């Protein structure tokens, strides 16, 4: 499900006080990390991921890869942290349609 700009602004506000639930180190993006992110998204819907030890271009590519491999929306990035949203089977976050 693609989110529009208004929904992204709303989700950024919800994500602001959250702490990163998954941290990616020098080993990079492994299948275990993807499984952990999928589990966190299923449980929380909106999560933050911290990427350490990478250059800016590598971080951006890794965040895009996470969004692609988890079918999640990359909502926001600041420095080493990216916020992702994917609705659960029974969503707890209600988004406006427009």
Question: Could you please describe the fold and organization of this structure?
Answer:
The protein has a single domain, classed as 2-Layer Sandwich (Translation Initiation Factor IF3), CATH 3.30.110. The two termini are 14 Å apart. It contains three helices and four strands, in the order αβαβαββ. Strand 1, helix 2 and strand 2 form a beta-alpha-beta unit.
So what's the CATH class? Alpha Beta
> Given the structure, what is the number of helices?
3
- Strand order of the biggest β-sheet: 1-2-4-3
Helix content: 40-55%
The residue-averaged pLDDT reads: 91
Any guess at the CATH architecture? 2-Layer Sandwich
Terminal residue distance: 14 Å
Give start-end ranges of low-pLDDT stretches: none
Q: How many strands in all? A: 4
CATH topology: Translation Initiation Factor IF3
Class from secondary-structure proportions: alpha+beta
**Beta-strand share of residues:** 15-25%
Quick take:
This protein has 98 residues and is of the alpha+beta class. The chain is built from three helices and four strands, in the order αβαβαββ.
List the helices and strands and how they pair.
Blueprint: H1 5-15, E1 22-24, H2 31-44, E2 46-51, H3 56-70, E3 73-78, E4 81-85
Parallel strand pairs: 1-2
Antiparallel strand pairs: 2-4, 3-4
Summary tags:
single chain; 98 residues; alpha+beta; Translation Initiation Factor IF3; four-stranded mixed sheet; 3 helices; 20% strand; globular
